[in-house]
Amino acid sequence: MPDFWRASGYGLLDRNQDGRLVVSDDYLRAYLMRPEVRPVEESGPGERALHAALMETPRKAIGDRELAAIEDADARDNYKVVLAFRDRLLASPTLEDAYLKLFLESNHRTPALFIDQLVHVIARNLLSDIEDPLRARAAELLFRSQKITIRDGAIMLADEETVEMHAASGGLGSLGKLIVESNTPLRQVDLDVLTSENAGVYWSRDDQYDTVLELTFGRHGLDALARVLEAWVAHFLQIGVNIQPVSRIQDDKWVWHIGLDAEASSIMNDLYQQKEVEEDRMKQVIALFRLEFSDPTVMRQAIQGRPVYLGLAKDRGDRLRLKPQNLLVNLPLAERA
User: Fold this and answer.
1) How far apart, in Å, are the Cα atoms of 93 and each of 77, 116, 236, 277?
2) Which residue ranges make up each domain of the chain?
């Protein structure tokens, strides 16, 4: 089994007997080495002293007096954000618990970047035993925004940041950016579309985010995403679910749905309420799924045995920003796990 997503920090963490991730000092030190916090040449002695103390003892309690000793106001604010996030992690037994608590609260101010990093390493954990590279690529949707291209009915997903990099520099870094700025034409850069035949190339490029996933109905990529979503639910809630792609919702007794992103939530809500949805808006939907519980008794009694429909949709800018927390907090459970 290849070691993948090394940049997630998975190798810095411990796992408890339930297979969940436990914070380590080295994982906390990684946050202290972020460019927003790591001392720079202009850093004063107060900031350097605090950073050194935290590197020595990453769980050290820091009071207002120690924060006030940081000379630069921006650096002081950055420390407050990082330390608040650290304290959230330390207040929970596992990273999974810390993540779920964020979305059971309504007033958290955790930066989106930190949430994505949590999802990154948690997804790495739940995929620790997989051998299918398509599932690993599909799991990138949980924490990285995607750019959607539809060609001859095929739905292609590429990492948005990678697409923007290529658009700005042709994939040639700073040299390519200079060429673009001088209006010199660049060769077209094509990203590799993963298939069941060539998917093995993913393992050597897993941290580059430069492969394309096809989510066309009936293709392996959509099935891979369904399996990832099943694992996501099982890992957090210890509940077995079966998720299958569907081409449309044909159910006179449609009782529950979950949009896996903001656009899908809005469209599915309107459809459920039998509101008219314009054709162009319907075309934003790129995937639908039918979720069924292995044990229907874990559902709310009034709808036990009925399927839950899931949806994915691109926004007006052809972007997809999947919100994996929606699948955890919006399931119709009899009791919150």
Assistant:
1) 27, 19, 13, 44
2) 6-126, 145-214, 220-329
- Give the other-Cβ count within 10 Å of 157's Cβ: 25
The tokens 């081409």 sit on which residue? Answer: 247
State yes or no: pLDDT of 1 exceeds 50: yes
In angstroms, the Cα distances linking 314 to 173, 210, 217, 237 are 28, 20, 15, 27
Q: How far is Cα 177 from Cα 188, in angstroms, rounded to an integer? A: 14
Span 186-201, mean pLDDT?
Answer: 74
What whole-number distance in Å separates Cα of residue 268 and Cα of residue 275? 10
Confidence (pTM): 0.90
Give me Rg for the CA atoms of the chain.
Answer: 22
Structure tokens that stand for 175 in this block: 């040299």
Residue type, 199: A
- The DSSP-derived string for 156-170 is EEEEHHHHHHHHHHT
Q: Evaluate the CA torsion angle 200, 206, 212, 215 in order and state its sign.
A: positive
